[in-house]
């Protein structure tokens, strides 16, 4: 599995061959607060880079989760839909949101590295 | 208008509060623990809420003050005993709710607790009915602290002996730090607890004591999940000037005598609604799954006719499920009626539910 890359909308992506795994960052969960509802996409759905792909709701509000990369969904993580609170505990591990078959690895390469993302969060405090 | 701050603003800041603008005030939405933990610690131990943004409106006068107030408030103020409180409203000519409130009889008159966003207008509306010799004061030198949760009584009794004797919806004067303060047994969470009216200069000392007794600070976020589980209305969302007490399913809050005799704003209309029922009515709503039906979610019948809308909706941490309130056509208001909720363009099943979603008994 490749190193994690990060988007400005606080998603992370890792790549295994042409299958990408996408989730939301720890920083995102800290901003959202207690997560109480998650909706993940079904397999077969086509998503565009920066297009809406999933929904996450905290006690405060609902937010869209965007795909940082284009492709076709191969799997949504049903475990987080059943236990939304698990996204708060392991957002960058077991609580990934969806996997997709990507079309263009260049989209992955253009995302931020961990260091770049940490710097981005510091410079753009919410 | 400049954003206002309560006397505890810096104190909240030091406790790690995240602030939001609310009704013209910078108020804590949550602290470090977050909404769910704050909610649970209120239900299992005790939490304190700074509600000093609410209006503490004092009125003094003779018997004519009661006549004046009864023109706009449908409570039986004449028979309200000293130190007893009632939940009631200010009503407009159409019977619409200008604000919901708690009114307490004091030695010299009344104290009314008003919603922060409404208080300026409320005072204008009340003043129309007052006589020249009636005195009134919106006291901004006082803070208001709600202490809520099962341990509230044990903790507050240590500091202010005698509060344990108060029954729900009654209050009294107590001495603290050689000052008078007024404590009522009341709240907005469905838990036992108190509301403490205390001078801005002494309030920090009171909070120091509460924190030393492991009482957690609770923000507006958990205040909302707590009150919604308890089935209590939030003005500006579940209630407004176009909604009357019958539609709001709050006819119990109109005094029996006043229902019969009237003499308050909008009585003709309310009398008619009491006799014939209203077209729409406030109900509790439980989505079947985990989906949260937030404010303005459209409600449909099972055969896809639009029958109403959600006015408050969230995840209820103690119910461990989403909960909501809203208005539906009265023929769909029976508990258990299946409905559909349109969230992000998709329809989800749900049911009309009993209120409250979460129930505990008050000390009577």
Give the biggest beta sheet of chain A.
Answer: 6 strands, antiparallel
CATH architecture of chain A: Beta Barrel
CATH-defined superfamily of chain A: RNA polymerase II/Efflux pump adaptor protein, barrel-sandwich hybrid domain
In this structure, how is the largest beta sheet of chain B organized? 6 strands, mixed
Helix/sheet category of chain A: alpha+beta
Give the topology, please.
The complex is a heterodimer of chains A (126) and B (364).
Chain A: E1 5-6, E2 11-16, E3 19-24, H1 26-32, E4 35-39, E5 46-47, E6 51-58, E7 62-67, E8 71-76, H2 78-82, H3 86-89, E9 98-102, H4 105-109, H5 114-123
Antiparallel strand pairs in A: 1-2, 2-3, 3-9, 4-6, 5-8, 6-7, 8-9
Chain B: H1 9-14, E1 18-22, E2 25-30, H2 35-44, E3 47-50, E4 55-60, H3 63-70, E5 85-91, E6 97-105, E7 109-114, H4 119-127, E8 135-138, E9 142-148, H5 152-159, E10 171-176, E11 179-184, E12 193-199, H6 203-212, E13 216-217, H7 220-229, H8 256-261, H9 267-276, E14 280-287, E15 298-300, E16 306-316, E17 321-329, E18 338-343, E19 346-353
Parallel strand pairs in B: 3-13
Antiparallel strand pairs in B: 1-2, 3-9, 4-7, 4-8, 5-6, 6-7, 9-12, 10-11, 11-12, 14-17, 14-19, 15-16, 15-18, 16-17, 18-19
């Amino acid at each position: 599995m490749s190193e994690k890359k990060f988007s400005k909308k606080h998603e992370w992506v890792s790549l295994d061959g042409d299958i990408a795994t996408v989730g939301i960052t720890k920083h995102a969960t800290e901003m959202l607060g207690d997560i109480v509802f998650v909706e993940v996409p079904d397999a077969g759905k086509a998503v565009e880079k920066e297009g809406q792909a999933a929904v996450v709701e905290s006690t405060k509000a609902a937010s869209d989760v965007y795909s940082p990369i284009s492709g076709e969904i191969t799997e949504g993580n049903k475990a987080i839909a059943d236990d939304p609170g698990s996204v708060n505990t392991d957002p960058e591990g077991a609580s990934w949101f969806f996997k997709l078959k990507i079309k263009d690895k260049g989209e992955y390469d253009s995302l931020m590295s961990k260091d770049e993302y940490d710097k981005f969060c510091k410079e753009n405090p919410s | 208008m400049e954003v206002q701050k309560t006397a505890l603003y810096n104190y909240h800041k030091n406790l790690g509060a995240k602030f939001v603008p609310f009704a013209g005030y910078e108020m804590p939405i949550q602290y470090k623990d977050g909404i769910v933990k704050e909610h649970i610690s209120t239900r299992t131990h005790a939490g304190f809420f700074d509600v000093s943004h609410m209006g503490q409106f004092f009125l003094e006068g003779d018997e004519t003050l009661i006549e004046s107030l009864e023109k706009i408030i449908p409570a039986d103020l004449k028979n309200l005993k000293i130190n007893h409180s009632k939940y009631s409203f200010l009503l407009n000519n159409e019977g619409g709710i200008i604000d919901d409130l708690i009114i307490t009889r004091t030695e010299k008159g009344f104290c009314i607790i008003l919603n922060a966003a409404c208080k300026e207008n409320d005072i204008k509306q009340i003043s129309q009915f007052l006589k020249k010799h009636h005195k009134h004061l919106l006291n901004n030198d006082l803070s208001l602290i709600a202490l809520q949760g099962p341990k509230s009584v044990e903790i507050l009794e240590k500091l202010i002996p005698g509060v344990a004797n108060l029954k729900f919806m009654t209050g009294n004067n107590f001495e603290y730090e050689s000052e008078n303060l007024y404590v009522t047994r009341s709240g907005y969470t469905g838990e036992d607890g108190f509301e403490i009216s205390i001078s801005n200069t002494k309030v920090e000392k009171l909070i120091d004591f509460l924190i030393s007794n492991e009482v957690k600070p609770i923000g507006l976020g958990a205040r909302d999940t707590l009150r919604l589980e308890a089935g209590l209305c939030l003005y500006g969302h579940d209630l407004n000037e176009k909604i009357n007490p019958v539609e709001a399913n709050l006819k119990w809050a109109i005094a029996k005598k006043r229902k019969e005799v009237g003499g308050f704003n909008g009585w003709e209309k309310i009398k008619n609604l009491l006799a014939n029922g209203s077209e729409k009515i406030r109900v509790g709503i439980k989505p079947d799954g985990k989906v949260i039906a937030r404010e303005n979610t459209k409600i449909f019948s099972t055969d896809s006719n639009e029958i109403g809308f959600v006015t408050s909706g969230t995840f209820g941490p103690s119910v461990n499920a989403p909960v909501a309130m809203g208005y539906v056509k009265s023929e769909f208001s029976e508990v258990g009626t299946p409905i559909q909720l349109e969230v992000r363009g998709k329809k989800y099943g749900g049911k009309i539910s009993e209120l409250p979603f979460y129930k505990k008994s008050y000390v009577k």
